[in-house]
Amino acid sequence: MAFSMGCCFATLFIPIIITSFAPAVMAAEEFKVGGNEGWRQPAANETEMYNRWAERRRFHIGDSLRFEYKNDTVLVVDKWGYYHCDSSHPISVFKDENTVIKLDRPGPIYFVSGEPDHCKNGQRLMVEVITLHPISKSPPSLAPSPSSSAGSFSFVPELLSLYVLLFAASVHM
């Protein structure tokens, strides 16, 4: 089956190529911990509420967490403190009832309530902070990289996806 990549076909895909190299700018987000529920001791049947809340979100360096609470505290703890509800050696302690913590490093960050029974009942939170991959401002090279073996090429994933899309579209023309 022969196919032609005429002017119309190429015109359709040029915007995709241009936008795939545009730098992505992500504004920092502020997340209210627990949503409308805030930072509170979970009910007996809600002990996983903060884990579920965190699993539905992506946290990046620069984002922040807002803890809203009454008659409680927020402690930043290490992994041991989180898993054992041990608040005896916190990294940081907050008591202002409206705490905003900026996420400034990648990796897991652990929070617990300063009330021992609250933590044991599920008032604890672990967030995994991720970094954004740096975006190259120049188009990727399709030439073999000097350190690669023969026949290997360096691809940007979006460009590879575009080639697959172009190939699939050309087969159906």
UniProtKB/TrEMBL annotation:
The keyword Oxidoreductase does not apply. SUPFAM superfamilies: Cupredoxins (SSF49503). It is a lipid-anchor; GPI-anchor. Coiled coil: none annotated. It comes from the Eukaryota. InterPro entries: Cupredoxin, ENL_dom, Phytocyanin-like, Phytocyanin_dom. It is found in: Cell membrane. Pfam families: Cu_bind_like. The keyword Cell inner membrane does not apply. GO terms for molecular function: electron transfer activity. Residues 29-131 form the Phytocyanin domain. Residues 1-27 form the signal peptide. GO terms for cellular component: plasma membrane; side of membrane. Keywords: Cell membrane, Disulfide bond, Glycoprotein, GPI-anchor, Lipoprotein, Membrane, Signal. PANTHER family: BLUE COPPER PROTEIN, EARLY NODULIN-LIKE PROTEIN 7. Belongs to the early nodulin-like (ENODL) family. This is Phytocyanin domain-containing protein. It comes from Buddleja alternifolia.
